[in-house]
Structure formats: structure tokens, C-alpha cells
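S.,

Sequence below, as promised.
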Amino acid sequence: MSPAHLLPPEWMALLDRLSLGSGKRVAGTLQGKRRSSRLGSSLEFADYRSYAPGDDVRRFDWGVYSRTGKPFVRQFMDEQELMVSLYVDCSASMDFGGAPLLDGKPDRNHGENKLLFAKRLAASIGYIALCSYERVGAYCYSDRLEGRLPILRGRASAMRLFQFLQEMPPGAEGSLSSALGDPGAVPRLSGMTWIFSDFWMDEDESSIGSMLSRLAGAGQEVVLVQVLSPEEIHPELSGDLRLVDSESNTGKEVAITGRVLQRYREELEHYQNKLRKITSERGISYVAISSDMTLQEAVFGVLAGSGLVRV
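The prediction came back faster than expected:
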């Protein structure tokens, strides 16, 4: 698959009309399409303040002066770009599942490979941001940062983003906490951080919370997108099997019965509820997406339904 086909042209045409649902007012360095908390030079009126020597006389409000006899200048909202950071989990557990696409759509029984699906979701979010004149940075990680893409801006940079994501291979054991410990791993500018992962992490609730608090403390509006395959959500296994951990390569003999599968589903639900609790306590967004969804179902359905993208 060429970089140009990581996202089909007809899909990019649909993304053109979307924007990211960030609730932040940001203070960037270049003008964009998003309102910041600073006052500046857009056309949207904000407030008046008393005239002071040296103020731009073009902002002097003669109408107010004629009515009150007091000199005032008009102030306007400063529209700045949002910094969008995309983190894609490239650990071994993400390289799971998938069947060849049928007419561009995933097989409903197997879904798409999780890593490829996560890359396509990240590419979609990045493309939306670039089309909205936001700045975009991208990272792939396992237990460390495996690759990072310098900050991009403008629709013309989309192919660089697609190529970067497509060329990143699956790595080894995953640990977002370890990866964020790498120098420069946490964005320096406040903005919006998206993390695409299955979040199969051998970390306790405290460690996960600390990691997310660190991002939030760096001025990030964080979005966790958990990507799971249909086989992980509703496994259809039976008999005596040896299950092998794709990251540690350790195995365990298991007799799969209906009761075991029911216990697994309960544990998965418990873990997802824990993620929801950890994120909601920190004002962080969390969504779960199955890799058997189409991109349109995932973006226009799940993400738009959560207010994370806007039509």
C-alpha cells in the first residue's frame, strides 16, 4: 500500500468538512482557525479598553468617543492554530488480527489488522487537523519512542504524515509510561494529544493515572482511542489451547470453556470501566473502537458522537 492509499481519496474528501472538537482556547505562534485566550488581530470583537499612547489608531472607536467623550480602542480575539500530537502504539500486541480488505472494507468476522487500523485512524485525525491549518506532530512507540515526525502544517504535508505512519513497523513490548520518559516525548506546547493503542499494559491503575496526569499537566487535552479486534472483544475459542503472549513470548496452557470465555468478557469490561474511571477523573476523553468498523463508522459514528470531531 502506497502512502497515498493509507487513506483513500474518497475518504479524504469526506474528512475535508470536519474539524477537531477541542475545547481548548490555545495560544499558538502562528495564526490559524482556532480561537485562543489572547487578544489579537482577528475580525471577532472581544472588548474595549482605554486608549493609550502608541495604540493602533485604526482600532480607535470614534462612535464611543462621540457619545462619551472618552477614548477607547477595540480589541479582537486572536485566532491561533492548535498543536495536535498523535501517538500510535506500534508494540507487538498491536500487530494482531485482520484479513484482506473486501472492497475497501474490513471483514466483519476478523476486522482489520489493529496496527494498520490505528494508523489509518491517526492519519484521518492528522489530515483533519492539517486541513484546518493546525500543526501536527506524530510519534510511534513501543517501550520507547520508535520514531517521531517533525511538526507539520498545511494540507500539502499530509503525504509526509501518511508515509511516516505507514513505514513504522511493529516493535516489541509496549509501555506508554516508558516511552513518555524519553527526552522530548511529551509535547512542549499545549494542545491536543491523541493516543491510539489497545492499552494492553502491564501497569497498575496508579501508574496509568500518573502517566495521564503528566500529559494533562503539560497542557494537553488528551484523547485515548482503544483499538481492539473482534477476536479480543468476542473470542470464539474452544478446547485445550496454548495461549502465547505476543510481547513476552511466554505461554500458558488453558482449557477454553464457555465459563472461561464469560470470565474473560467480564475482565475486559472491568478493565475498560477502569480506564473510563481514570480518564473521567482527569477530564480525559476515552473511546473504544473495534477494528471491524469502517473508517466512516469510527470517525462519523464513534468520534463524532463523542464530540471529538465536528461536522
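Confidence is low (pLDDT under 50) at residues 25-43.

Coffee later?
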